């Protein structure tokens, strides 16, 4: 290829192309984020609908019970008062169940909020144990019964990070683990404070990654899943977020027939860019 005749102009064009590529990459990451939540949506809807159904039916029972209490109190005789007492006990236990149902709903909504939070360039201190718990709430609908989730929360310090981006990484890796497991299996999430990093490991009892696929899994577009299931972008984006954005490390170990473990290391403090 011949040299461009007008280097400064060429430099401008290059600059423009770079800016466009950057903004496309941002758009791609954003739409991937929405797609991965979208795929979980059926499970999330179920996870919210079940407690809402229970609150609604409890509400009817509460209404009828209180009407009965009202007429028993109006009667005022000994038997009626005893009946009113029993009904009040029933109401109290229904209210306790409603409280649990409301807590389940707000847990799921909190999980969603972690993702909805505006992409900020600002680094904040975050409790990664809490974030992992919130993210697990979103996968619960998808995993239910089929996959047992075991957790081992270490005593970890708060970590300076882009919290929503790391939640995206956790979600990607958890969903991959869930998709890898055929039938029943187990996912183990573990956190540890190691030196100046927090180490998160996510292990599955799936079939493992074939040796010939191992060098490719972080490449954008590599997927072994059916069209519509896999995009091959999850791990490429995750690697970028953990290593380029946070200066951490993302790697895995895998054994055929045993399972796969992903290791995410995130430095506790973010070095200022200027200091290199
Ligand atoms: N836990 C896992 N067990 C087995 N294979 C995995 C696991 N995680 C990722 N992979 C492999 O890596 C590929 C790329 O993953 P990813 O980038 O998330 O894309 P996608 O999930 O859309 O296929 C997957 O298609 C799969 O072959
Ligand atoms: Mg994936």
Order of helices and strands: HHEHEEHEEHEE
The largest pleated sheet is described as: 5 strands, mixed
Shape: elongated
Tally of separate domains: 2
| CATH 2nd-level architecture of the largest domain | 2-Layer Sandwich
User: What hetero molecules are bound to the protein chains?
Assistant: adenosine-5'-diphosphate, magnesium ion
Mean pLDDT across the residues is: 88
Helicity range: 55-70%
Under CATH, the topology of the largest domain can be stated as Heat Shock Protein 90
Q: Name the CATH superfamily classification of the largest domain.
A: Histidine kinase-like ATPase, C-terminal domain
Runs with pLDDT <50, length 5+? none
Q: Which strand order do you get reading across the main beta sheet?
A: 2-4-5-7-6
Please count the helical segments: 5
CATH class of the largest domain: Alpha Beta
What gyration radius follows from the Cα positions, in whole Å?
25 Å
Distance between the termini: 36 Å
Record field, number of beta strands: 7
* Relative strand content: 15-25%
Query: Structural class, judged by helices and strands?
Result: alpha+beta
What does this entry look like structurally?
With 276 residues, this protein is of the alpha+beta class. The chain folds into two domains: 1-116, no CATH class; 125-275, Histidine kinase-like ATPase, C-terminal domain (Heat Shock Protein 90), CATH 3.30.565.10. It contains five helices and seven strands. It has helices spanning 7-75, 78-116, 128-143, 163-180, 234-245, and strands at 124-126, 147-152, 159-161, 185-194, 197-204, 249-255, 259-267. The strands form two sheets. A five-stranded mixed sheet has the order 2-4-5-7-6. Strand 6 (249-255) and strand 7 (259-267) form a beta hairpin. The longest helix is centred in the N-terminal third of the chain and has 69 residues, at 7-75. The protein is elongated. It starts with 6 loop residues before the first helix and ends in a 9-residue tail after the last strand. The model has no long low-confidence stretch (mean pLDDT 88). Magnesium ion (MG) binds next to helix 4.
């Amino acid at each position: 290829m011949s040299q461009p005749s007008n280097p400064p102009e060429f430099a401008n064009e290059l600059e423009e192309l770079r800016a466009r590529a950057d903004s496309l990459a941002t758009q791609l990451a954003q739409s991937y984020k929405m797609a991965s939540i979208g795929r979980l949506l059926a499970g999330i809807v179920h996870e919210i609908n079940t407690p809402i159904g229970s609150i609604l039916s409890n509400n009817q029972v509460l209404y009828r019970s209180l009407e009965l209490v009202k007429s028993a109190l109006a009667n005022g005789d000994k038997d009626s008062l005893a009946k009113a007492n029993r009904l009040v006990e029933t109401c109290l236990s229904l209210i306790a169940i409603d409280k649990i149902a409301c807590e389940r709903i707000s847990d799921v909504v909190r999980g969603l909020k972690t993702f909805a939070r505006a992409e900020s360039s600002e680094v904040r201190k975050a409790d990664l144990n809490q974030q992992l718990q919130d993210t697990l709430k979103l996968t619960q609908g998808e995993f239910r019964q089929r996959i047992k989730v075991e957790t081992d929360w270490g005593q970890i310090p708060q970590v300076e990070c882009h919290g929503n981006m790391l939640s995206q990484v956790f979600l990607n890796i958890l969903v991959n683990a869930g998709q890898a497991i055929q039938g029943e299996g187990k996912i183990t999430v573990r956190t540890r404070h190691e030196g100046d990093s927090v180490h998160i490991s996510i292990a599955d009892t799936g079939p493992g990654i074939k040796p010939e696929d191992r060098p490719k899994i972080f490449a954008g577009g590599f997927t072994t899943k059916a069209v519509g299931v896999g995009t091959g972008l999850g791990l490429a984006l995750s690697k970028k977020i953990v290593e380029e954005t946070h200066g951490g490390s993302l790697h895995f170990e895998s054994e055929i027939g045993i399972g796969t473990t992903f290791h995410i290391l995130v430095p506790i403090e973010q070095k200022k860019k200027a200091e290199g």
